[in-house]
Amino acid sequence: MNVSNEVRWMAEEQAQTGMELLTALIQESQSDYEQLQKELKEIDVLIRQSATEVEKLTQRNSQMGNRVRQMEMNLDTYPRNDIREIYLAAHEIQMRLFMMRGQLEQLQNRQQSLEQQSQYLARLIDILSQIAPSDLVRDVNRAHPAVHSDVVRVIEAQENERQRLARQIHDGPAQSLTNLILQAEICERLFDTDPVQARVELGNLKNSVNATFQKIREFILMLRPMMLDDLGLMPTLKQYVQDFEEKTRLSTSLTIMGRESRLPSYTEVTIFRMIQELLNNVRIHAHASHAQVTLDFQDTMVVVSVEDDGSGFDVEEVQKAIQQRKGLGLHTIQERAEMLGGRVQLDSRIGRGTRVRIEIPIE
Fold this sequence. Notes:
There is one protein chain. This protein is α+β, with helices and mostly antiparallel strands. The protein has helices at 3-73, 80-131, 134-143, 147-193, 195-223, 226-230, 233-248, 265-286, 315-323, 330-339; strands spanning 251-258, 290-297, 301-308, 343-348, 354-361. The protein is globular, with a radius of gyration of 29 Å. Residues 139-148 have low confidence and may be disordered.
């Protein structure tokens, strides 16, 4: 073997070794990233549970504080044992609230740390993928789904949701609160010049406050129904369908089949959001007189079906819109279903209504 051949052979061997190391590094980074995503999902569930507990304890602490103040204003009428029990109960609630707040803070700090690690790994994988030959990246991605595109999709979904919420807050509660301030100023000016009219305006202000309060309650329900964490999917859906029917005057039915059971938190909230989005589509686009929501609990999956007797649509056109990241919120629904290993089926004809069927695997 001459010198040039030996040098070439050594260079090829080093290149092969370098490619193997690069492949191993990409695979290891993607495996670490996937593990981080699992941990983030788990810690997100713990954070929501802890936040719910903190909220409950905060309310109980406030109620107990009122009880303590009431007792202290009338100490002479309370037996010594009752005074002692009230103080002990107040102290216990305060200690539990203090501990739960500390636990929530630790979980949030841990979540922030994991998110930073996740972002670092995503950037590292992106850089390594740009360095590596395209055929190597394809081979690695066959074993590990593309991470960077998933991160982009998550960020885009978060930003779109924030924009939607910002618009709704601006058009809803923010505008209503501005009107309340104006009405309060009118009442303030009228008290000196026309007390009778001031009372009328004060009554109008009271009605406006009640209406604004109802709007804010509806807004909170839309953001995250508290019943979903406390009671589960079924009671929350029953209440939501009832409220939807009352609010929209659209006849809406809910049918539950199979053996009801609690599902993982992320599955329950995903199913609830899907049904919420589909009913909103019916309200806005379908021109329907009736909507039917069905949940069928089977052995290996839960099947969600939302059907209406409205105007329907061309399925092929809507499928194209979904592929272009458009389409009446159906794109988001399809993404959510696929993230849980499920699938979405559309059945619709113009003038003959629509049926959306979603299959979600369950353990």
